[in-house]
Amino acid sequence: MKKIRLTILLTFISNLLSAQDKSDIIQFDKSLNQFHNVRDFSISKDGNEAYFTIQSPNQEISQLAYIKKENNKWSKPELLPFCDSYMYLEPFLSFNNNRLFFVSDRPLNDSISTKKDFDIWYVDRNNKNDEWSKPINMGDPVNSELDEFYPSVSKNNNLYFTMVSSKGLGKDDIYFCKWEGDSYSNPILLNENINSASYEFNAFISEKEDFIIFSKYKEEDGQGSGDLYISKKDDNGKWKKATNLGTPINTEYMEYCPFYDEKKQILYFTSKRNNLKPRKFNNISDLSKHINESSNGLSKIYMISFKIE
User: Fold this and answer.
1) Inter-residue contact 213 to 232 (CB < 8 Å)
2) Mean of the per-residue pLDDT values of the chain
3) Exposure winner among 11, 138, 204, 239, fewest CB in 10 A?
4) Who contacts 148 (Cβ-Cβ below 8 Å, separation ≥6)?
């Protein structure tokens, strides 16, 4: 019992050292406040391209967008050219930045008009100035008749993703497919230190596969909704028991869709945190600005300096 309490205390202290104050957490870019819901974030290694998902209030519409940094300022958001009437979400750039993974329910080819279940797709380009290719479905064994979500790829191309399967441990579970040099292995369920009988989803895998950050829903040690957790590998390459990232990163509201910039040591994530409080407003413009630019319960992308030892 004393050992358990000591572990919890050390974890709590570590969280306090990693994230000191709520003021350390800021919105990624306030220009995105023009959209109702923004989620899923991936940034290029040079920090000059960012990809994300824009959704309608009730998520009937979901599209992929990007911005580029020009003269140290982010450009206006633009839709990716292959987006159409189907659902597109959860972009992830490969290590060399020339493959963009994403999720969609689009049909397998243009001759079919009926949407599919959610699969993992990708587009390629030769360099950052080149155009993206047409979407390519990852096919078997990654995709199946089930829904696959939230692709994340390590430097050696191992693929981590969420799948809802009766063969898993819980409602949503995290799997990975090992890159065999020319194809992927069958999906492998991560162990009980990651997955449980509940919900685990939205996993970000590090470049060297030495840590993984993901969401758990309504855990006993959580803040009340979806929380971000981290697990590291032991000396034998096995995943250790995941630990909660603590406050102020996690709140009583939903935190999900993590992305970690290892070079700059910045954690990006989506949150539905809400700090709106009534006050007197000078005019409509003042009211609108306060509602739209605050943490207002809608999904927004946040960032914080966060060192992972």
Assistant:
1) no
2) 92
3) 11
4) 103, 118, 119, 120, 142, 161, 162, 163
